[in-house]
Amino acid sequence: MKIVIAGVGEVGSHLAKMLGSEYHEITVVDNDPKRLESIAGMVDVIVVEGDCTTFATLKKAAVRKADLYIAVLPEETSNVVSAMLAKQLGARKTIARIDNNEYLEPNNKEMFINMGIDYLFYPEKAAAQEVINLLGHTSTTEYVDFSGGKLSLVVFKIDAASPLIDKSLIEITGDRDSLPYRTVAISRDGETIIPRGNDRFQEGDNIYVIANQSAEKEVVAFSGKTDIDIKNMMILGGSKIGVQVASELQDEVNIKLVDYTPEKAYKLAEQLERTLIINEDGRNTDAMIEEGLSNMDAFLAVTGRAETNILAAMLAKRLGVKKVIAEVENLNYINLAENMGIDTIINKKLIMASNIFRFTMSTDVQAIKCLTGCDAEVLEFIVKPNSPATKGKIKDLDFPHDAIIGGIVRGDKTFIAVGNMEINAYDRVVVFSLPSAISRIGKFFN
């Protein structure tokens, strides 16, 4: 696939690196020569210097041949104009990053489609929704629904109280045909393992489990934790993520939002009528304690600085806050933050990559999630008639060893995948995959 990425800031660079390893032809466009030089030194891409909102630059980037045009420039207006022009010049599919919730309203969304923009993506809104979802499943570090919640990926860290410690997969599962869940991966010391029967669980492991609705509570019990009701919550940072989370939850949860900028604090106080706004520096430990951090059920750190978010989250953990979430945009800091005991990390680049990645797959991918805690993806495929996956039992499919089929949704029924099971046309199949297998698994369902 020929892909043109307009803008090589943090998001554009991450997309180029991710998609560049998937055998696509990538062209990146930016008016900053230093950024272009930097990305060209890391990934095999074609670079074009110029303004992405001009016909001359877009023609130079050969967008008329593009299968996918992704506009992720810093300015929303530039993204909209750039994607619209790219479509007019012949790009088959266009995506624009936005930062205005109004554009996503159904009637307005239709207008953008008529202008030639196939997909609008608002990373901060998606991140806020992920946070809200996680606050409803406090014992998990990541939680992803598939097929309207019929199947879920539940991710949790094994604490000292977990009954899984030192037990093998076989000892836990026993007769797997009768179980409503399946362990699809273990993340340990920065390595992601597709587990086999004799693999043993260790304290500190991150466990990835595909489960149906009836099994979620049973799976969560393995973590050694229990879900809690969030009644009191503190948000550090009046960012777009923080504001959206507060606006959606302030009717149900007592929220304190802390921001160090006086002007922003005043505006937030007018905007969020049922949220207590505090003008304070979140790096001031004494001030945070004085504002009642130790009494919170949940803490969310979403300032513009990863370092501040990590330090504040560590303080919250030390003070006994039960659910701690931190935004960490520097990918190099994610493992560090998790090793420091922070419950959950959110990253807008990975969230955006999850949404865009499915447009690059030739197979019918209903959903894809680039996971934060490990170098892997979980995908939901719709099986096409006469595809290789329908030609025999799962154990006979010669499926890649670095991927695993977790579950199947067939109409209103759900099945946890086992070797003797057969896959039918139009089934929805949830697959956990390491990056090395992504380019190979699609052919099984196509």
From TrEMBL:
Pfam family, one: TrkA_N
Source organism superkingdom: Bacteria
Keyword Ion transport: yes
RCK C-terminal domain segment(s): 141-225, 366-446
RCK N-terminal domain residues: 1-121, 230-346
Keyword Nucleus: no
Record's keyword terms, sorted: Ion transport, NAD, Potassium, Potassium transport, Transport
Name the UniProt record assigns to this protein: Trk system potassium uptake protein TrkA
Lineage: Bacteria, Pseudomonadati, Bacteroidota, Bacteroidia, Bacteroidales
Gene assigned in the entry: trkA
